[in-house]
Design a protein that fits this description.
By secondary structure, the protein is an alpha+beta fold. It has 18 helices and ten strands. The structure holds fe (ii) ion (FE2) (2 copies). One fe (ii) ion binds next to α9.
Length: 509
């Protein structure tokens, strides 16, 4: 499981579930972002941040007159002027590491993470809080602006004024700049929490980038370096031990276009969190993390059109697909750092599709037990695959439906104890479920309750907007009681996010 299934081969259980994921027909995806920001505006805003990032980087290499800059200047101009034309004015503002586009919070896309991070660091260093463009931007203006911005001395509180003066010396008066507002009232506690979240994001996106490199190298028949994967797995373990909910939240970022990389990282996160609850040592957890990251590495040898085929596979294609665990073993054994690999890891790659009753693949004649790594990865793999949209299955199962399916198949296909651990991790209302509360508020399950007595009382993020229309980020704990000792909230039912046009992933970024 975890792979697409051949529709005419029902023997391989898993993806071809009988539960309809939703009785509603597919709808237009995301006419608005969860904050109410229009999708087109969100796209343009993300584009603007990326282009700003690229331009700043390029300006470190070339001087302002260099022709190599032209293309980047033009791309930036096109994006920014489209935005200015739409709204008459464009304000890009940073408050506490978040960017706001004309006062609407701009959540970043998965691909945009590096650019947002870079830009917020550069703004912070230069103590710049807001830039307002009041007229359409011309090429010369932009060149002056970028270089004046870049040349600001780090840490000077007068920078906004200095930048304004520098622009005025070139007769540019339509760009306004204000200093960064520093909010000192934040409590240490939230800062610490936010720090963890930032660390989590960094590990998550770095691991995606690294696994991408590994796969690209293997595809090009070059040997891959897995030492970096090991270091990242170790960092992830630290964080999982500290607070498992942060990385588990990241698994909600289901990137449709980069499925393989996201999937590998997600399977690794679930596996590590399960391994931690099993009490595995850090050394074994590291091995498990690497194995999970590499579990589908054999797929790098399968042609793209077979992997992404929107229709059912032919039997030859399916046979090829079924070879990926074995091909994975071959790749792992050819890695440059074979010293980092031990038999436990090789077997984990080999048997992650075997299933408890050995009905999966590869077919075996002798062994009669699936390894622990194999069993953990299989469960993590199935859960992630079922809850992620794929080209041949655009509407995925909700977390709740996926667990229901797995529970039904537990004795034949999954290790029942490990499945219990997964349910404990993601809760009865799994992480990322959209829920309706008895107060008629809608929320997203943000974190499951660690206490097994309160699996039905998770921490919920309310989907709500303030008076200005911005999304509020209010977390409520369903174990909270009022003065009389009654629970303030309870979940009355789960809802289908598609129906409400809610992109769950964005709430976990
Ligand atoms: Fe997989
Ligand atoms: Fe697989």
């Amino acid at each position: 499981m975890g792979d697409r299934t051949l529709l005419n081969e029902p023997a391989d259980k898993g993806d071809q579930m009988e539960i309809a994921p939703s009785s509603t027909p597919p709808k237009k995806v995301n006419p608005t972002s969860p904050d109410g920001m229009e999708a087109e505006l969100w796209r343009l805003g993300n584009n603007l941040v990326t282009k700003f990032h690229v331009l700043l980087r390029i300006s470190q290499i070339y001087d302002s007159k260099n022709v190599a800059l032209n293309q980047f200047i033009n791309e930036f101009l096109e994006t920014i002027n489209t935005l200015i034309k739409r709204n008459g004015v464009l304000s890009l503002k940073m408050i506490k590491d978040e960017f706001f586009l004309n006062d609407e919070r701009l959540r970043y896309s998965v691909e945009g993470f590096t650019s947002f991070k870079y830009l917020s660091t550069q703004w912070k260093k230069r103590v710049i809080g807001e830039v307002i463009f009041r007229t359409l931007v011309e090429e010369e203006m932009l060149r002056h602006f970028i270089y004046a911005f870049f040349n600001l001395e780090e840490g000077r509180e007068e920078n906004a004024d200095l930048l304004k003066k520098e622009l005025e010396s070139h007769q540019i008066t339509s760009i306004e700049v204000t200093p960064l507002e520093i909010d000192e009232s934040e409590e240490d506690y939230t800062l610490q929490k936010e720090d963890h979240r930032e660390v989590g994001k960094k590990i998550f996106f770095e691991t995606i980038g690294t696994i991408k490199d590994v796969i690209t190298n293997i595809k090009g028949n070059q040997s891959a370096d897995i030492r970096k994967l090991k270091r990242l797995a170790q960092k992830a373990i630290h964080l999982v031990i500290e607070d498992e909910s942060i990385l588990l939240g990241m698994t909600m970022i289901k990137n449709y276009d980069e499925y393989t990389f996201n999937h590998s990282v997600n399977v690794s996160i679930y596996s590590l969190a399960m391994g931690k609850r099993l009490g595995l040592s850090k050394k074994i957890l590291t091995e498990l993390g690497i194995t999970a990251l590499l579990h589908d590495i054999g797929k790098s040898k399968i042609p793209r059109d077979v992997l992404n085929k929107p229709a059912p596979l032919s039997s030859e294609e399916w046979e090829m697909m079924k070879k990926h665990p074995l091909m994975g073993v071959e790749i792992v054994l050819n890695l440059k750092q074979l010293g980092e690999i031990n038999p436990r890891m090789v077997v984990g790659v080999f048997d992650h599709h075997l299933m408890s009753d050995l009905s999966g693949y590869p077919r075996l004649f002798l062994r009669n037990e699936v390894s622990l790594f194999g069993r953990i990865i299989q469960i993590a793999d199935a859960y992630d695959a079922m809850t992620t949209p794929r080209i041949y299955k655009k509407i995925p199962y909700t977390p709740e439906q996926a667990l229901a399916v797995m529970l039904r198949e537990k004795t034949v296909h999954f290790d029942p104890l490990l499945l219990k651990i997964l349910i404990g991790l993601v809760g009865i209302y799994p992480l990322g479920s959209l829920v309706l509360l008895n107060t008629h508020e809608i929320g997203i399950v943000y974190k499951s309750n660690y206490d097994p007595n309160f699996l039905d009382r998770p921490i919920v993020l309310l989907v709500d907007r303030d008076a200005k229309g911005d999304a509020t980020k209010q977390l409520i704990d369903l174990t909270d009681t009022d003065e009389a000792g009654n629970y303030k909230w309870r979940v009355t039912k789960t809802l289908d996010p598609q129906k409400y046009h809610i992109d769950i992933a964005k709430y976990f970024l």
